[in-house]
Amino acid sequence: MKQADHQSLNWTMEETFLQCLYFVSLLQCCSTNEARLTVSPSTSQFFKGESVSLICEDDSSAGWTLRRNTTRQQRTQCETDWGRRAASSCTISYMIIEDSGVYWCESRDGSTSNSITITVTEKLTTTTKPLIPPAPPPSPGLVSSFPLHRVVFFICVYVLVVILMLLVTLVLSERGRNKSKADVAVDFTDSDIKLSHQQQQ
């Protein structure tokens, strides 16, 4: 049997049991109702962890006691076994699943009020992952690590350095050529002087 079917079967059995408790409580009304049970907030369906106040409304001072029948215990009374009593009301500050049952007011002589069936269920929770917002687009100033005018400046400096190196290379090369021509001319002049001197002798 699947888990969902098993839970559905358990829920159906619990509802049937609570209905039986309700009819048993009705059978206890052997005399005319002298009090009226009200619930605040005005609902019979609660989630686990919520609070509820049950109030016995009665014009007389017969001394009513709030009782309940649950799947675990029968005819238990407020403050002695559950809840906190204040005058003619009883408050359950934190409800649990076991608080599901039939509630009614009962006087000292056995008279009972109307019965209210209260059901407590687990609060549904969703396990959705939090949505991560998309990252904002980068600002124009962060697209490049350097501003445009700095890039142009560095390019210009690089071009000037290259041009200067070429000029220096050309100048040095031209000086080398001129020096070689001067040395050759001096050599020729010395040779001519020697030859003419020998011929005169």
Main attributes of the structure:
Immunoglobulin-like; 201 residues; 2 domains; Ig-like domain-containing protein; membrane; four-stranded antiparallel sheet; transmembrane helix
Please describe the topology of this protein.
Elements: H1 3-27, E1 36-40, E2 45-47, E3 52-57, E4 65-70, E5 76-77, E6 84-86, E7 89-92, E8 101-106, E9 116-121, H2 148-200
Parallel strand pairs: 2-9
Antiparallel strand pairs: 1-3, 3-7, 4-5, 4-8, 6-7, 8-9
GO molecular function: transmembrane signaling receptor activity
InterPro entries: Ig-like_dom, Ig-like_dom_sf, Ig-like_fold, Ig_Fc_receptor
Keywords: Disulfide bond, Membrane, Signal, Transmembrane, Transmembrane helix
Strand order of the largest sheet: 2-9-8-4-5
State the name of the first-level CATH class of the largest domain.
Mainly Beta
Give the proportion of residues in helices.
25-40%
Query: What is the number of independent domains?
Result: 2
CATH A-level architecture of the largest domain = Sandwich
The fourth-level CATH homologous superfamily of the largest domain is: Immunoglobulins
N/C terminus separation: 140 Å
How would a crystallographer describe the biggest sheet? 5 strands, mixed
Shape: rod-shaped
Give the strand content: 15-25%
| Secondary structure: number of strands | 9
- The whole-number mean of residue pLDDT values reads 75
> What structural class do the secondary elements suggest?
alpha+beta
Number of helical elements? 2
